[in-house]
Structures are given as structure tokens and as C-alpha cells.
Amino acid sequence: MAIYIDPPTWPGHGRMWSHLVSDHSFDELHAFAAGIGAPRRAFERDHYDLPAERYGDAVRAGAVEVGSKELLRRLTAAGLRRPKNRPAPRV
Questions:
Q1: CA separation for the pair 83, 2 (Å, rounded)
Q2: Domain DUF4031 spans what residues (predicted)?
Q3: Would you give the end-to-end CA distance of the chain in angstroms?
């Protein structure tokens, strides 16, 4: 069980962004995000969007640094991937 973060390479709103995900549960992800002060509104379907200036906070708190493809692979393998335009899986 781990929290993963990819590099801040995603542009938007004049900033660069990272994605923060769990390979275990959304509860684990929400608890981690709350612990580093990420607002719940930063959660989008299956991940948190974190601005580049918060990347170090997440890593210092224990998030594992991985590339974007590896992050997606782990999220999908955990069964937590929720792509756009598809309903959330029933749990």
C-alpha cells in the first residue's frame, strides 16, 4: 500500500501539476492528501491534482516518486482507475 506522485509536467491554469494516487483505496488517498493540506476539491475522479510547489511536501510525507506511465499502471492494477466519460465502478 503506497501513495504515488508523478512529476509536475502537466500544464494548466498557468502552473504545472502532478497527480497523486493510491494503490490501495480512495480512503488512503484522501487521508494522505488531508495530511499534506491538499483541499478535497483537488480530487478528480481517481487522483488529486497537486501544483508543482506542493510536490516536495508530498514526497517528504512519503509519496513515492514515479513516472506518469508507472503511476497509471499502478492505479489501474489496483482497480481504482476512473477514466473520463465512464461511470465509476460499483463497489
A1: 21
A2: 3-77
A3: 19
